[in-house]
Design brief:
Helix content: over 70%
Number of domains: 1
Number of helices: 4
Radius of gyration: 26 Å
Strand content: under 5%
Structural class: mainly alpha
Order of helices and strands: HHHH
Largest sheet: none
Protein backbone atom coordinates (compact mmCIF):
# COMPACT_ATOMS: atom_id res chain seq x y z
CA UNK A 1 0.00 0.00 0.00
CA UNK A 2 0.98 3.58 -0.53
CA UNK A 3 1.12 5.99 2.38
CA UNK A 4 -0.43 9.38 1.89
CA UNK A 5 -0.95 12.47 3.99
CA UNK A 6 -4.27 14.31 4.05
CA UNK A 7 -5.44 17.45 5.79
CA UNK A 8 -8.77 17.40 7.62
CA UNK A 9 -10.80 20.03 9.42
CA UNK A 10 -10.57 19.62 13.19
CA UNK A 11 -14.27 18.72 13.43
CA UNK A 12 -13.94 16.04 10.73
CA UNK A 13 -10.87 14.57 12.42
CA UNK A 14 -12.64 14.48 15.79
CA UNK A 15 -15.67 12.78 14.23
CA UNK A 16 -13.41 10.26 12.50
CA UNK A 17 -11.62 9.49 15.77
CA UNK A 18 -14.92 9.01 17.63
CA UNK A 19 -16.33 6.80 14.87
CA UNK A 20 -13.17 4.69 14.74
CA UNK A 21 -13.25 4.19 18.49
CA UNK A 22 -16.95 3.30 18.47
CA UNK A 23 -16.46 0.79 15.62
CA UNK A 24 -13.22 -0.52 17.12
CA UNK A 25 -11.31 0.18 13.94
CA UNK A 26 -8.41 2.41 13.09
CA UNK A 27 -8.94 5.74 11.44
CA UNK A 28 -6.94 4.40 8.50
CA UNK A 29 -9.35 1.50 8.07
CA UNK A 30 -12.32 3.86 8.05
CA UNK A 31 -10.74 6.18 5.49
CA UNK A 32 -9.67 3.27 3.29
CA UNK A 33 -13.20 1.82 3.41
CA UNK A 34 -14.75 5.22 2.63
CA UNK A 35 -12.50 5.70 -0.39
CA UNK A 36 -13.33 2.19 -1.65
CA UNK A 37 -17.07 2.85 -1.33
CA UNK A 38 -16.80 6.20 -3.06
CA UNK A 39 -14.85 4.62 -5.88
CA UNK A 40 -17.37 1.78 -6.29
CA UNK A 41 -20.29 4.21 -6.35
CA UNK A 42 -18.52 6.44 -8.83
CA UNK A 43 -17.66 3.59 -11.17
CA UNK A 44 -21.12 2.01 -11.00
CA UNK A 45 -23.14 5.21 -11.40
CA UNK A 46 -23.42 6.32 -15.03
CA UNK A 47 -22.75 9.91 -15.96
CA UNK A 48 -25.68 12.10 -16.98
CA UNK A 49 -25.02 11.46 -20.67
CA UNK A 50 -24.62 7.71 -20.17
CA UNK A 51 -27.83 7.63 -18.12
CA UNK A 52 -29.64 9.54 -20.88
CA UNK A 53 -28.42 7.03 -23.48
CA UNK A 54 -29.47 4.11 -21.29
CA UNK A 55 -32.90 5.56 -20.57
CA UNK A 56 -33.68 6.40 -24.20
CA UNK A 57 -32.20 3.30 -25.82
CA UNK A 58 -34.68 1.59 -28.11
CA UNK A 59 -37.47 4.18 -28.04
CA UNK A 60 -37.15 4.98 -31.78
CA UNK A 61 -39.39 2.45 -33.54
CA UNK A 62 -39.72 4.09 -36.98
CA UNK A 63 -37.01 2.34 -38.95
CA UNK A 64 -33.45 3.46 -39.56
CA UNK A 65 -32.74 6.53 -37.45
CA UNK A 66 -29.81 7.65 -39.57
CA UNK A 67 -31.89 7.48 -42.77
CA UNK A 68 -34.52 9.61 -41.04
CA UNK A 69 -31.92 12.20 -40.01
CA UNK A 70 -30.56 12.42 -43.57
CA UNK A 71 -34.08 12.88 -44.95
CA UNK A 72 -34.79 15.69 -42.49
CA UNK A 73 -31.50 17.43 -43.31
CA UNK A 74 -32.27 17.29 -47.05
CA UNK A 75 -35.45 19.20 -46.23
CA UNK A 76 -33.34 21.88 -44.54
CA UNK A 77 -31.24 22.24 -47.67
CA UNK A 78 -34.37 22.67 -49.83
CA UNK A 79 -35.58 25.56 -47.66
CA UNK A 80 -32.55 27.73 -48.45
Amino acid sequence: MIRTVISLDAEDKAWLDRTAKRQRKTMTQLVRHAVQRLRQESESAPSGFERLLRDTRGIWKSGDGLAYQKKMRREWDRRK
